[in-house]
Every structure is written in C-alpha cells, then in structure tokens.
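Re-running the complex after MR caught last week's input typo. The corrected sequence lines follow. Everything else is unchanged.
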Amino acid sequence: MEKKTPLYESHVALGGKIVEFGGYLMPVQYPSGVIAEHMAVRTKAGLFDVSHMAELAMEGPAAVANIQHLVTADISKMVDGQVKYAMLCNDQGGIVDDLVIYRRGPEQYLLVVNAGNHDKDAAWVSSHLSGDVKYRDVSDEVAQLALQGPASAAILRKICAESDIPEKYYHFCEGCVLHLEGGRDITAIISQTGYTGEFGYEIYCSSADVTDLWNTLLSVGKDDGLIPCGLGARDTLRLEAAMPLYGHEMNDGITPKEAGLPCKLDGKEFIGRDAIIAKGAPKIKRIGMKVTGRGIIREHLDIYTKDGKKIGWTSSGTYCPFMEMSVAMGYIDIDEIEIGKKLDVDVRGRKVEVEIVPLPFYKIDR
Amino acid sequence: MNFPAELKYSKTHEWVKMLDDTTALVGISDFAQDELGDLVFVNLPIVGDDVVAGDAMCDVESVKAVSDVMSPVSGTVAEVNNELDDAPEKLNEDPYGAWIAKIENITDTDELLDAEAYEAFTKEA
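Corrected-run output:
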C-alpha cells in the first residue's frame, strides 16, 4: 500500500491530481497545470511537498569514514553548514542512488536520498557500517518542502530572520526559527538547494509542523505569485536544467563517469572506485538533445545516426515550457558525440530529428 | 466542466459534431483535455486514411505523457486541423472549437452518447 506524506489531505483539498510515485501518493499537478507551475518557478515562486524524500542520519566519531566509504565525492574538506552532491555506487561502479550530504557537525551528517530507492539505500548503507557510528533512518520524522523561484528569498524573509537564510548555494542554516500563521514558532533547516535549476530553498522540519508551514508559506507568498507545484513541474524543471533522475539518467548499470556526474577518482577510496578506474574511459556518455523535428521524445527510445546506425537510447525527454522547446537526454557511443550533430530518434516508428546540444539546457548564474 | 448539448460523445472521450448524415468534425472532450493536462504536441491523422471507431486515430502529447486519441466513428479522414500543429494548447483552451479531423463516409453513430449520458459516464469514471 502506498504511503502518504503529512500533506496528503492538503494536496487533495487544493485539487491536486494524485499519482503514485516512489511508493507515495503525491500530487502530479494542481488545477493551474504543469506549464503554469513550471513558469511560476522560473519567474516567481513555487512550493513543492518533497516529504517523500528519505533522510538517513549518521553520527559519531566514525561517521566521516563511513560516509566516505559510500560516496563518490571527497567529504573530508566539508565544513559545518555545507551540502555536497554525490553518488552511492555498487561494487561494479554502477549508481545505487544519487544523494545530498549535509554536514551538521564534525561528527553529525544527514544523507538525503530518493523515495523510490529508500529501502534499497537504507539496506545498502546499514550493511556497510563499521566502527563507532550511530545510523538512524529519520525519514518518518522529517518532512521537506522545496520553495523554488526568484521570489523565494523575499517570501522566506517574511517568516524568518535574514541570518537564518543561507546566503550561498549548497549551504544551509540550522535551528532556523520560522514564525507561522497563528503565532506559533517552529525550528527548521533551511538549505539553498533544489531540483529545479532555479534559485531557491529546501526546508526540513518536523512532520508534525509541515502542514502549518505549508499553509503559512502559501499565504505569505501569495502576493509574490507563489503557487503549489506538483511532481509534473518538478520533472519538467529538472529536465530543463538537465538534472539527472534515478531510473532515467542513472541506474545500477551506469557509472557516474558515463553520466557525467560527480565522481572523484583521485581522492579517497569508495565502493565502486576501483571498478570505475578499471573500466577506463567511458564508451558511452550522457548527452543533451534539442528536438529539431516534430514531436516529443520520451525515455527508452532508440537513437540513430542519419545513416541509420543505432548508437544509443534516450533516458528522459519532454517539452520545456520556459525555453519553449522540446528536449531530451540520452546515452550514445562516445565516438558519435559532437555538438551540433543531427541524429534521429525512433518515436513509435516515426523518425524524429534531434541535434546534440551542450548540457544543461537551462542555467542561472549563482 | 462543459458538455455542449448539440454534440455526441464516445466512451473514449471524443466529441462528434455531425455536419450531415455521413460527415462530422471530431475532437477531444473537455473531460479528456482536463485529464490529459497541458498538451504540447499533436500528431495529426493523415488525410485519406480510414479510421475505425474505438481504434487509435492519432496521438497527443502532454508535458507528462503520450496518449492515443481514438476515433469516435468509422470513416475516412477528409481534413485535419493543421492549426493545431503550432497551437496544441487550443485543445486545452477551447476543446470544442479545436476540432482534430473531419471524417467522411461515416457508417456508424449508434454507439455514441448524448451530452447527458456522456456527462453521467464521466462521473462514473
């Protein structure tokens, strides 16, 4: 049976269309629709319930060594209040999941992983523990909202002190006091991160507080154009920003090197590192494609050269409302990669022309 | 939700506007466009092709997914609405104005529902 986040009833009351995602019943869109929600994030602000994401806490003298053994990034130089994006890899160098690592203290870390991989990741992490470390799955206690868009900072300032708002991308503030409607104060983690390619924040609070925080943000942000956004817009936004999605650009058989994702081979040892080194230079790589023919490209479609040679497959694709073009990502033979090259994608028997373009499709200055 | 009384409807959520006994304009219902979400591409039927009631006639793409549009009647595609090539959003904005195809030589319309019956059908769905 599917799980519900604490905000499930709020989504239904707002007219959200509910779908199953990662084992949760989540809103795919609200009545304003995916395009309006996408545009709100690019031009004003959008609020997402991302409480389905899983949080794993790692504490103790051996926390650093344990995390380092699991992730593809070098975490030894992280400072308190810093966030790092990395991969968990298996012994063959394939991606178990992508994650963000929060350093809350020298011996206190939070790992945030995908809902769809929650059980797999929790089992993977707990089966590799060693030394003096306390590991706890805190996913049920922790709720998460994503406030994304250029107006996000102005909205947050209405309910918390400037000093509680992280100034830098991939940094967070801890113990932030948020003033909710009705006069109640709660504490939260505010992180300048997100999965939209836009300026914005992710807020972690207690599951018991999240409904009041959600209502407060929607209310104080209304004049700034803030609207609730669902998973549909989350997907089109991440795709426009060329951010990878597990099960699409990443899976157990794709290495971070092939995916063009963080993977530090000349630093610390981690599970899968030797396998990735042994594989040598990748034979396939993730590319971006702009659709120059007519149509929309989706995942799992074959990619051909103009003379009909099959060279790869698509991993994701959609119409990007802000850039007003149809794009896709996929994997092709490394020898065929050349920016500007035209290829064909087989869309249900119809050849649709695409052009290889640099990633990301959309990027803001940070 | 809007269900114009002068139209007929299929259980696969297309509408039919009879122009004479054997010719009709067809499109997707208000219910269908709402279920599909924001449409961003229409792969129109081909003029001259025969279509069969209940079989796929063309496909539409929303931001999220591709969906087949069934033909509500059997006949031959006489014309397609090329305006939708550049403006698929018209299917969302004006579902009963944005016809997809004109079908001629129509042989069967008995299975189609009137507005009242179709509205009741969408509420069961």
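None of the earlier attempt is carried over here. Chain B has four helices and nine strands. Strands of chain B lie at 8-9, 14-20, 23-28, 39-43, 50-51, 56-62, 66-70, 75-80, 101-104.
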